[in-house]
């Protein structure tokens, strides 16, 4: 199956759009792929390609401050405002995808690793239109994670937490338990502690959850973990 990759501007956001050449794109399930922190859309293009090869239409939006000309120092200190910006722009991105017929948003999935995984969990907590999600090496417990993962300066923490409150998973786990969710984490992760995934696994405790903790892996997805995520989407969001 041949794959086409386009660089588009959707809802004022640069995106990479992956889709198979054959068939009607508007009828294919749409997966929004959120990329990693301090990485470009292009560096996560392998995931978009793999999903498109399986028959999905995939849109990977560029996160704020991640353009070639953006200040890398400012970007490194802005994990939480970047995450919040991604989550707040999600409805407009979906509306534009629907208008431009980039995929079937009635069959909508989200996928991401590291910061992208944070976005997956936050989006699923807020937006019920998402039917399935795959989060790698992430936490949806923002009020806890903000203190240890790229913590902002003390005077801004409260402000960020107010903005992130609608997306914070604490107390909203039942919302995720109603839809298929795939979690993957390396037990040796020194960036995002595996305890966040373990906490969510225990809180959901549902047949809709697929949770894999790799005892040997650190903060890096593996080929096997990608294959397992693809199998999850094939079962929960069939083409």
Task: Summarize the amount of helix as a percent range.
Answer: 25-40%
Distance between the termini: 14 Å
Average pLDDT value?
Answer: 92
Contiguous low-pLDDT stretches (5 residues minimum) are none
Class of secondary structure makeup: alpha/beta
Order of neighbouring strands in the sheet with most strands: 1-2-4-3-5-6-7-8
- The gyration radius over C-alpha positions equals 17 Å
State the oligomer.
Answer: single chain
Following the backbone from N to C, one meets helices and strands in this order, namely: EEEHEHHEHEHHHEHEH
Shape: globular
Strand tally is 8
Q: Strand content of the residues, in percent?
A: 15-25%
Summarize the biggest pleated sheet.
Answer: 8 strands, mixed
Q: Count of helical segments?
A: 9
Can you tell me about this structure?
With 239 residues, this protein is an alpha/beta fold. Helices cover 38% and strands 23% of the residues. It is built from nine helices and eight strands. The chain has an eight-stranded mixed beta sheet with strand order 1-2-4-3-5-6-7-8, with helices on both faces. The protein is globular, with a radius of gyration of 17 Å. The two termini are 14 Å apart. The relative contact order is 0.14. The model has no long low-confidence stretch (mean pLDDT 92).
Task: Write the SSE topology.
Elements (H helix, E strand, L loop, with lengths): L2 E8 L2 E8 L8 E6 L10 H9 L3 E5 L10 H5 L2 H21 L4 E10 L1 H12 L5 E5 L5 H4 L8 H11 L8 H5 L3 E6 L8 H10 L4 E6 L8 H14 L3
Parallel strand pairs: 3-4, 3-5, 5-6, 6-7, 7-8
Antiparallel strand pairs: 1-2, 2-4
Helix pairs in contact: 3-4
